[in-house]
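Predict the holo structure. Ligand: dinuclear copper ion.
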Amino acid sequence: MRRGSIVRITIYGVIAGTIASLAAVLIPWLPTSASEEMDRIEFTFWFTTVICIGIFAIVMAAIAYSVLKFRAADDDERDGPPVHGHTGLEIIWTAIPTVLVTAISVVSAVVLAKNDDAGKNPLRIAVTAQQFAWKFEYPDKTTSGSLVLPVGRAVKLTLHSLDVIHSFWVPEFGQKSDAVPGIETTLVITPTRIGSYSLVCTELCGLGHATMRAQVQVVEATDYQAFLKRAASGDGAPAAADDGAAVYTAAGCGGCHAFEPAGTDAAVGPSLDEIDSGGKPLDAYILESIVDPNAVLAPGYQGDVMPNTYDKSLTEGQIDALVQYLSDGQGGN
Ligand code: CUA
């Protein structure tokens, strides 16, 4: 090959590589990492991306050179010359991808293994998913509707579902794990950045799927202890307190229902602002609707949408508080 051709191929390769590199670097493809696991995932991502950019540059250079150099004249109707392979080239384009794909596999396997390893003494938090809310149980049995994690400590989440498949995802933590009824799945997170994040359900789980979110806070270890203390004493720990408003929030009622005192306006289920008990005592009717939602359906709403598991997921005290809260919030009654 002449020197001029090599220079041209090199120029095409550099142009293609530069365009691909700019697209990789200038566009924020991933959220800013907030966990050690996400850092490793980012490393895998960049490792693979750099290899891909290299291959892309080489392939584009070969295509551009071939298209320009071997372009047939407009009146040239002849067949191209018969080409019967090239053993040297075939060995090269088999060997190089084999090495690269193996390298990507090894890096990915190491990252997967490390990301699954919570170390000797992780903080264990049980996560319960239910249409359409998340509940977190801390080692001291305190429960809350929000996830609070101390920075720098490995956390092992065990995921459970009470009804259908949900999926736990905090984009800044970089990983997802399904919560599947009947089995226990796990997820390891080692938060590295103090801040507030959003947990989103990332498995289509029913009408309220889009509202199935929870707040995640990464705090200093001392603030985590303070949170647990507050939660245990009932202050700021929704599900631990038998405070109806807190139960309403923690159980995720607002994901589907409008209720003015709680400031929610979802319309998946009937509004709770003016409950029509159909002649029954109001408290008894509300209680029945919580534990057995299909018993009486509000006009225009289908059965089997609201979970019928609240008698299991909430304590009796919490249900009583919720009934009281909803009943107190009735405008006309
Ligand atoms: Cu739970 Cu989507």
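The helical segments are 3-26, 36-69, 87-116, 221-232, 244-250, 282-291, 310-313, 316-328. The chain has eight helices and twelve strands.
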